Input
Amino acid sequence: MKPARTVTHIEVPYTWSNVINGEWVAELLQARLDEWCPKLFGYHMLKLGGLSAELTSSHCNIQHQISVDRLSPKRTIVADALELPFIEKSFDACLLMHQLDYAVDPHGLLREIDRVMVDDGYLVLSGNNPLSLLGLRGLLPWNRHQAPWTGKMYLPFRINDWLRLLNYEVVYQETFAIVPATRHLACAAWFEHVLSEPLSAVGSLYFIVARKRTCPLKLIKPTWKLRRQLAPLRINCRTQVEKTCTKTPPRS
Output
């Protein structure tokens, strides 16, 4: 298995129009995001990357939402994803749409997100599945210089391993888009409905919802107490003879 970290520069797309079939992918992700947004609660939400910023989260109960990117016109803060300008445990939820595929250090990106995430916070992420028709198209030489094949695709179970190392619980996972988008959307939708059950593992896209779980570092001691050992009581054991001996003799 190839290491996730790389030293080569990866061009990160900041809008879905820069990705092949990006509008189609955004529609599929938006449908799943609309289903999960009402389930997210808190005060602050972080949208990391331009692709995350273009997705609508108006149905979310979290009103204060911040978008971080360098080039996206919908950004609210310009910053590097590996060095977020926020204190620890600042956000209750984070959207990470197709950002791990273009990250130079995906492990460092997840650790930085974990730093600013509160306990029991939600991480919603997505990406491209290399074990799919979309991933196989990246083997063609004329597709290697176009997004999404310019990035690195990771298998969903590998993403799950990274999340477990950070004490995240995967509460929902779905792999979909088995048939890539074509001009005949009706036929593609029919094939997707027929093949979704037997071939769900080879879908082109994955959608994961994970929740941060924090284990206490200090052991909780039991509340019960040990039974005390038997000890003799300190009582006056002097006999009657000792009492008479200690009496003063009468005066003559």
